[in-house]
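Working notes for the structural subgroup meeting. M.R. asked for a predicted model of this chain before we commit to crystallization trials. I am recording the input and output together here so anyone reviewing the notebook later can reproduce the run.

Input as submitted:
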Amino acid sequence: MGDSGEMTIIEVYKMDGSNLVVETNASSSFGEVAETIVFDKQ
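Returned structure, recorded in token form:
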């Protein structure tokens, strides 16, 4: 692993009604990842 790659992660937290929505975007020299997680309030 001679590549000292950088990674940028952006997380957005917001409320959708009573649910918490977390949007994560990560980009690095290896590619990009986008993910959305919804937490349902019990």
